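Journal club prep, notes for RB
We'll compare a predicted complex against what the paper describes. Inputs for the iron/sulfur cluster case:
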Amino acid sequence: MEKFKLNPKPTWKELPIASMIPQPATSRFYKTGDWRSFRPVVDKEKCTRCGLCWVYCPDGAIRIVEDGSYDVDLDYCKGCGICAEECPVKAISMVEEVEE
Ligand code: SF4
Ligand code: SF4
């Protein structure tokens, strides 16, 4: 997919006809995880693969891995902790980020 370039002040000549949105899901190009202060860590031993973290994550940052387990895409996770709160077996811990 061609990378969407955002011009914050486009001229009328640059706007698409009828100001249509040219591409859906453009937020994919904006890594929103960089202001996170806590990160979720999934304990794969405890995880029952119920998928509730995937359902509740407001940022779509929970990914289903090839082996059927769940993991976090830290490029987009904002560290809100909803997944840890909703996990019925408490398999997700929120761990403080450390600056390197
Ligand atoms: S909510 Fe918890 S148990 Fe369910 S898939 Fe997510 S980490 Fe696993
Ligand atoms: S901490 Fe929030 S944003 Fe990050 S994976 Fe969990 S629910 Fe999604």
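Talking point for the session: The radius of gyration is 18 Å.
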